[in-house]
Design brief:
mainly beta, 6-stranded mixed β-sheet, 5-stranded mixed β-sheet
């Protein structure tokens, strides 16, 4: 693995406090790492230390500002972007030269409405015109998709490719499917807030990409490829032949696992389980902290509120479509958004392995306005490895910058700086 140091400088305004969150990474949420209670302002500079372990699955993630009460404001100002973890050398079983070439044959699609939350989505920041992609005809590409939504009244959307194209899902929220690609090609994909989707796509001729039936990008299909190694998402380049992704412990199949505890979560606009965001009161799952190394089953009652869990991906274990059309049984996601018309508060069941990383972490409604209003909660994973607080501050004009924030434990009332 590799360790990265990120130096973040304030805006120059002492009254503007912000920070950064790496959405989707399996790294600590405390110490000098991805802790959303960290702050920077004025001309101060703080240091984030991210260790990406060797076992971390490669994938499509993103980053955004995450200072409570101001996330919507800062993301609306453009404080977000895509973050990619490279695939590495052990992607899966059945990965041959064609698959390797395909995985590197990538295009980026970042759709946001941060300039006008009720207007059309803009792709890759191209305003006043449509983003345009140049494809070789009938060549397979890996399209990395991120949607960033600021509208608090909607949490899902449909991304559609024209009939000239063929597309298969290969990863959700930066996590490869167990079997890659999906068995069935699609032209329409439902995707929730804060989620990512990687698809394998090829087009026989010029086509379009739409969000909720509104065209947001065009595809220009040129001449066929002349590459010596033909990119293909399929094993042996035979359509329908899938390959199996390598699964680290935090993404192992939990469907037959013994669970430590079952817990129900209900999200609303201002709270989680009727508890609003607090630095003095963590969310106690079954009146206690989470034990490191345990497996939990959560029953989610979300309505249209997207639940994002920092650090630990969630595996969908409801077989009856109660997790909605955005999610497949058995696959992993870091954000669950239920989108089934007329379902009300469905009982979506997910399982989480609390491994590799300990300390405090956060869950939230990922409609930015709702998170800012209090639909967020810290909880502790106790007994696991901890992240150091230092190095933490690089430049500090006031002499007191980015002090660690302690959150009480459920079990004893004590506080941890983790």
């Amino acid at each position: 693995g590799k360790t990265y140091g990120l130096f973040v400088r304030g805006s120059g305004n002492e009254d503007t406090v912000t920070n950064i969150h790496t959405h989707g990474l399996h790294i600590p949420g405390h110490g000098n790492a991805d802790d959303v209670t960290r702050t920077v302002s004025g001309s101060d500079v703080i240091i984030y230390e991210y260790h990406i372990p060797t076992y971390h699955m490669g994938g499509t993630h993103w980053y955004h500002a995450h200072w409570h009460h101001h996330s919507e404001q800062f993301v609306g100002g453009g404080a977000f972007g895509m973050l990619i973890v490279e695939d590495g050398s052990n992607v899966g079983t059945g990965v041959d030269a064609g698959v390797e070439a395909f995985l590197k044959n990538e295009k980026i699609f970042i759709a946001s409405n941060h300039e006008d939350i009720y207007g059309p989505f803009v792709v890759n920041g191209v305003e006043g015109d449509l983003e345009s992609y140049d494809f070789n005809s009938d060549e397979w590409y890996r399209l990395r998709i991120l949607t960033v939504n600021l509208d608090p009244n909607t949490s899902s959307r449909t991304i559609s490719f024209g009939d000239e194209c063929q597309a298969y899902a290969i990863a959700h929220d930066g996590i490869f499917r167990f079997e890659v690609p999906a068995r069935t090609a699609q032209n329409d994909f439902s995707i929730g807030d804060a989620s990512r989707l990687d698809v394998a796509i090829r087009c026989a001729s010029d086509s379009t990409i739409s969000i909720n039936d509104e065209t947001v990008a065009t595809i220009k299909a040129g001449q066929p490829s002349t590459k010596s190694v033909v990119p293909s998402p399929f094993k042996s380049s035979i359509e329908g032949q899938s390959w199996s992704s390598t699964r680290p412990d935090y993404l192992a199949d939990l469907r037959d696992a013994i669970t430590y505890y079952t817990y129900e979560l209900k999200l609303d606009e201002t709270n989680i389980n009727q508890q609003t965001y607090s630095l003095e009161k963590p969310l106690c799952l079954g009146h206690s902290d989470v034990q490191y190394g345990s497996i939990y089953e959560w029953e989610l009652r979300l309505s249209y509120h997207p639940l994002h869990l920092h650090i630990y991906p969630m595996q969908v274990v409801s077989e009856n479509n109660e997790c909605g059309e955005n999610h497949e049984y058995g696959e992993f996601y870091d954000t669950i958004t239920i989108r089934n018309e007329g379902m009300g508060r469905s009982r979506c069941k997910v399982r989480i392995a609390f491994v590799d990383v300990g300390g405090k972490t956060l869950m939230q409604c990922h409609l930015f306005k709702h998170g800012d209003q209090g639909a967020m909660a810290f909880f502790h994973v106790v007994g696991g490895p901890t992240q150091p607080d230092e190095p933490r501050v690089h430049e500090c004009a006031s002499g007191l910058c980015d002090e660690p924030v302690s959150i009480p434990l459920c079990s004893s009332g004590e506080s941890l700086n983790t």
